[in-house]
Structures are given as structure tokens and as C-alpha cells.
Amino acid sequence: MKRVFLIVLDSFGIGYLPDAYLFGDEGANTLKSNTGSPFFKIPNLISLGLGNIDGVDCIKKAENPIAAYGRCAEKSMGKDTTVGHWEIAGLISEKPLPTYPKGFPSEVISKFEALCGRRVICNLPYSGTKVIEDYGQEHIDTGALIVYTSADSVFQIAAHEDVVPVNELYRYCELAREMLVGEHGVGRVIARPFKTENLKFVRTASRRDFSLKPRGKTVLNALFEQGLDVIAVGKINDIFAGEGITRHIPTHSNKEGIDATLQLLNEDFCGLAFINLVDFDMLYGHRNDIDGYAKALSDLDGYLPSILSSLKDDDTLIITADHGCDPGDVSTDHTREYVPLLIVGKDAKGVNLGTFSTYAVIGDYVAELLGAEHKICAESIDEILKKARECE
């Protein structure tokens, strides 16, 4: 019974891409920024081979890495969660999803106001914590919805839970999702509920993403059609709009995601457990919180021995990321970076995988491991591992 555990460390980039200048991200390096924190302690990730990856020169190298190690460039035209995860699953986005650096056009806002029966305020790119600070009281006084965006392809709706109940906010998001297609087909509509604590507005854990359906077949569909389990942990189900997924385990933090992973390691299933650990991006990268990011990495690192010891002989563990979000960058946006690729499994130990031109090699490898029909790339992780075995 083969099982693959694919863990995405949301936003954990390891150095800017050659085309980063097109995105204003030259010099970005999420990993390197974290090394400056006193909370940065990742001996287990180092033992896997994180420091042995091409281009990584800010942490120690392992003498005998216990994983295969490499890095992937992003081929899609984007640097956001949706595009990154879709590419991991084999769907390359040649055209970027629409973004709105000046806010959404008046016709979009007017149509949304008519659909939900409420006025909209803000309609600008904004930090999620700052927007409720600046517009929260007006929202409470008027009942108007706070609509904002970011550098990503997102339409975000913030509302106080005492003014707009969470289920009502979700309904407004569903209306927006149905509306935002074609030219204005943003990657995600995001519900951003908040409440009042100690006289301050704080976001709650009831966030929910309403994603655009993938624009083609992914490895998840291929596994589903093969009758295999496809278990989505965290926001994976939202990112793929439920397409190709057999079971969804919602989480609200890294800890909940890791706990769910440890539970799945003790379950019998045949297929893929696809896990997103969101705190790196949501809580720390976007808030330029280097110490928080470093501590979250160190916390994950502390769980790795339990994860590794729970793997069965036929299991494969893959650790990667979907983009960067350098907490030491001048902006709070995602950053265009290489992502790490660490693979623990049979015959993977100590193999240098080099650099791949696309994240899609990961989806191809998952399909090869599980015997599903799905092949996107000329490059192949499996072929490199086979050649390494032949040379032993």
C-alpha cells in the first residue's frame, strides 16, 4: 500500500529566480532572511540536505544527507498560492491571473454591491491587518463590506462577525466567486472575518478561500480517476476547488496541519496526502516577521523526527514550497524564488537532484510513485534516482 506525503511549506523560498527582476524581487531570499533570527534552529531540515541544494550558501551542508535534495524554478507567470500549487500538480499557467494594483473597476464593485445588497468600502490593495484597523469602525457603523486586494490575484472581503455572521460572509464570497470569471477571474475570493478583542480588531480563524477551478487536469484528477485516495489537508481543498480530492481535513494553523499529518501517518490509505502549512506565509512572511517565521520553521523542524520515524517502507515524503515571501524584503508581497525539494524514500538518500525548470516535476513524480497516468515534464525525478542507483 503506497502512500505519498507531499508537504508544502507555504512561501518557503530559497533564493530569487533569474527572472525575479520582472516581479521586483531581485535579491529576495526567504531562507537567508530567517538565518538572521536567534530563533532559527533547523538541524533536521539540514540533515535532510536543505543546505546541500544548489545555490544555498547560508546554512550548513550535511555530510550524509538522508534525503534526495534539489530545487525547482517556477515556470508559471505568477508567484501566488494558487498558481504555485497548480504548477506542483502539473498545471502551468502561461498567463498571469488578473491583479488590481489600483483596486477593482467600478463595474465590478457595482455589480457586487447589487448582488449582496451592501455597500463596499476601501477597494484598494491593503495589508489584511491594517485594513481592519483603518476601515473596521466604518464597517461596524454602516454595515458596508470591506473589499480589498493585494499583489496577488485575490478579492478579499472582511467583515466583523457581530455585523455579518460568518455564514453570511461565506454567501457573499460565493456570489463574488460566481461573478468573478473570464476577464476578472481572480485566483481566490477570500472571506476574512474579524472580531473585537481587548478593544482591537483581530482576524479570526474562520477564513475561507473560494478558488477558481483549475484550468485543466492535474495529478489530483489522475489519482482520483485511478481510484486512489487524495487527502487534502489545510487549504489544499480550497486551492483546487475540491477537484480530484476524496477527503478534506480543514486546519487553521501549522500545528493543526502537522497534527493531521501525524494522524494520517498512522492510518491505512493508498494514495496522496497533500498538506499545506499556511502560517509561514499568512502570519509571518506577509507581516515581515522574521523572528515569527524562524520560530515556525524551528517548530516544524522539531516535529520532523516523529514524521520520519512514522514512515513505512513504501512511503515517500516530499517537502517543498509554492513561492517565496521573504520576511526581510522591503514589501509584504510574495517573492519570486526557487523552492526547495526534499524527498525521503527508497533509494533517495543523498541524491543531488539539481535544478528543475518547473514545479510540475513534483506532480509527475507523485504519479510515477502511485502508478497513475500523468506526465507533463521532459525532466524526471524518477530517472535521476534510477541513474543514481545504477551508479552505486
Give an overview in words.
This protein has 13 helices and 14 strands. By secondary structure, it is of the alpha/beta class. It has two domains: 271 residues, Alkaline Phosphatase, subunit A (3-Layer(aba) Sandwich); 106 residues, 2-Layer Sandwich (Alpha-Beta Plaits), CATH 3.30.70.1250. Strands 10-9-11-1-12-13-2-14 form an eight-stranded mixed beta sheet, with helices on both faces. Helix 4 packs across helix 6, helix 9 packs parallel to helix 11 and helix 10 packs antiparallel against helix 11. It starts with a strand and ends with a helix. The mean pLDDT is 96.
Summarize the structure.
This protein is α/β, with parallel strands linked by helices and 392 residues long.
Features:
single chain, alpha/beta, Alkaline Phosphatase, subunit A, Alpha-Beta Plaits, 2 domains, globular
Give a topology summary.
Layout (H helix, E strand, L loop, with lengths): L2 E7 L20 H5 L8 H6 L19 E5 L8 H8 L17 H11 L3 E6 L2 H15 L2 E5 L4 E7 L5 H14 L8 E10 L2 E4 L4 E4 L7 H7 L3 E5 L2 H4 L7 E3 L4 H12 L5 E7 L1 H7 L4 H21 L5 E5 L18 E6 L7 E5 L3 H11 L10 H10 L2
Helix pairs in contact: 4-6, 9-11, 10-11
